[in-house]
Design a protein that fits this description.
With 387 residues, the chain is mainly alpha-helical. The protein has 15 helices and two strands. It has a domain of 265 residues: A middle domain of Talin 1 (Up-down Bundle), CATH 1.20.1420.30. It is globular. The chain starts with a helix and ends with a helix. About 6% of the residues have low confidence.
Length: 387
């Protein structure tokens, strides 16, 4: 039995252990040593989720692979938001702005953090980061429309007080955002799939897997691991189904363990004197860790289009799937649901869309563009701490 366990890969063992730990800790007050174990298991489950999502992506190909991971991460986000809202944020506090803060943080981290990091590392390694402006532009436009519809308009409507939608307005926003997301997925996976595939430096869809340096020559020694990974045979149907099951197990573990750790996250935020809205930033950073790792790895392989699919796809799913779910959950949840952004947040969103547009149009980016997006992310995090 012990020998058999030793032969199992860690990506199989860790999700199962996370689920077992969840069963013993969920709904209980956990001491610090156990909390450390929870944190370690949560990180392990996130990394295992990345692995299994990439196995599935290798089987189904792009852009389906990035879509699988984006939807999986959004499932984590929705689960965390709903459980925290049901429990009153862990301390019975006000959770009316939790969904807004978490969704907006996910949008900023995805559209500036994941995208900026991918552009920066790819441009530094390969001189220029290249991608398809048609597919990426469509994704950015959808993100901008969803963010405006669900997060900006509630600040200006007059049917309800404050930054809230009325019931009818919330229902309209939920249906419209879900429809836009489904329409984009149809465009990405069926109608214009070729716009979302990696391209070479001449703008042609990449059919090979060989990576090149800035001078056009392949770096055989430095990239053997990456090329080997891309040349590997696709997993079998049985392996793909096993990874799909383990991905679900890992995601359940992440959602549950994050819920177990959420009171400690809120205590830590309170202890250092940060605003309660920063809890949403922490949650978003946590759930977007799988996408960040996957996007960086693809950027290093000069597959920037995959990285941008992950970044903008996550931002899109965060709004297009979370808001409808929260709208339905609000039927049973007590208290208001504030979705309208604050003026500072609206400014950051507008600037992010403007910079993103100027980045996307040429279809290639220098390290400067990556740095601009990362600077906007840094401004968002800093202003979340010191508004």
């Amino acid at each position: 039995m012990t020998a058999a366990l030793r032969r199992l890969p860690w990506t199989t063992v860790v999700p199962v252990l996370a689920l077992v730990l969840l069963a013993f800790t969920f709904g209980r007050h956990v001491p610090v040593p156990v909390l450390v174990l929870v944190g370690a298991s949560l990180i392990g489950a996130v990394l295992a989720a990345v692995h299994h999502a990439e196995v599935i992506a290798h089987k189904v190909g792009e852009p389906f692979g990035s879509l699988v991971l984006a939807v999986a991460v959004t499932v984590i986000e929705v689960g965390l938001i709903v459980t925290l809202m049901v429990s009153g944020g862990g301390h019975g506090g006000d959770t009316s702005e939790l969904a807004r803060d978490t969704v907006f943080a996910a949008v900023m981290i995805s559209a500036n953090g994941i995208v900026g990091l991918a552009l920066l590392v790819s441009a530094l390694k390969h001189h220029l980061a290249v991608f398809n402006p048609e597919g990426t532009g469509a994704a950015l436009a959808t993100v901008a429309a969803l963010a405006t519809l669900c997060l900006v308009l509630p600040r200006f409507t007059t049917s309800a007080d404050g930054a809230e939608f009325s019931g009818a307005q919330l229902a309209f926003a939920a249906v419209a955002s879900l429809a836009l997301y489904v329409l984009f997925v149809f465009t990405q996976t069926v109608r214009h799939r070729d716009f979302f595939l990696p391209v070479d430096r001449d703008g042609r869809t990449r059919t090979g897997t060989r990576d090149h340096d800035a001078d056009g020559t392949g770096d055989e020694q430095g990239e053997q691991g990456e090329q080997g990974e891309e040349h590997a045979d696709p997993p079998t149907g049985r392996q793909t189904l096993a990874s799909l099951g383990l991905l679900v197990v890992a995601l359940v573990g992440v959602v549950g363990l994050a819920k177990v750790a959420s009171p400690s996250i809120e205590d830590a935020v309170d202890a250092v004197g940060f605003p309660q809205a920063f809890v949403g930033v922490v949650i978003a950073l946590l759930v977007l860790l799988p996408e960040s790792i996957a996007a960086t790895r693809n950027a290093l392989r000069e597959r920037v289009q995959v990285s941008l699919n992950l970044g903008y796809g996550s931002a899109m799913a965060s709004i297009g799937l979370t808001i409808p779910t929260i709208a339905v959950a609000s039927i049973w949840l007590d208290g208001p649901l504030a979705l309208g952004l604050e003026p500072t947040q609206i400014v950051l969103l507008v600037v992010s869309v403007a910079v993103g547009t100027l980045t996307v149009v040429p279809g290639r980016a220098k390290p400067l563009q990556g740095g601009l997006h990362l600077a906007l992310l840094a401004a968002f995090v800093f202003l979340s701490i010191r508004p």
